[in-house]
Amino acid sequence: MSAWTLWGDEAKLAQDPIGFLQELYVRHNKEAKADPKFDDEARRWFKKLEDGDPTARALWQRFRDLSLADFKKTWDLLGTRHDSIAGESFYEDKMPEAIRLCIEKGIAEESQAR
Question: How many helices (H) does the chain have, and how many strands (E)?
Answer without folding.
Answer: 6, 0
